[in-house]
Amino acid sequence: MNYEKFVNKTIQFISTGAKVETSQINSDTNLVGSGIVDSLLLTELILYVEDELECTIEVDDFRLATFETIDSIYSSYGQ
After folding, report:
1. Interacting residues of 6 by C-beta distance below 8 A, sequence separation 6+
2. Rounded to an integer, what distance in angstroms lies between the CA atom of residue 47 and that of residue 13?
3. Count of CB atoms within 10 A of residue 70's CB?
4. Does domain 3-77 bear CATH number 1.10.1200.10?
5. Quick check: pTM over 0.85?
6. Are 23 and 13 contacting, i.e. CB atoms less than 8 angstroms apart?
7. Cα(79)–Cα(36) distance, integer angstroms
């Protein structure tokens, strides 16, 4: 999936899950630090990323910093 499509779909996914306006989320928004993504939504986001980017995120390899922004997620798993 290309970067722009991933960003747009992920903003929509997070917006729906967090019940916030899409305008509050950008590709460089600190998702956890801002409080938009809580622990439950983070779990759903991990599963979403695995599906959308066709990857596997191993528990031992998980780093919260990777899920700090949509940019950092795509940099880690979208290539």
Report:
1. 52, 53, 70, 74, 78
2. 12
3. 26
4. yes
5. yes
6. no
7. 25
Domain locations in the chain as residue ranges: 3-77
Mean pLDDT for all residues in the chain: 96
Cα of first residue to Cα of last residue in the chain, in angstroms, is 9
Tokens in use for 29? 């928004």
- Residue 56 DSSP symbol: -
Tens of pLDDT, residue by residue over 54-73, are 999 999 989 999 999 999 99
Q: Which of 23, 17, 6, 13 is nearest to 72 (CA)?
A: 6
Identity of the amino acid at 76: S
Structure tokens at 41: 């939504």
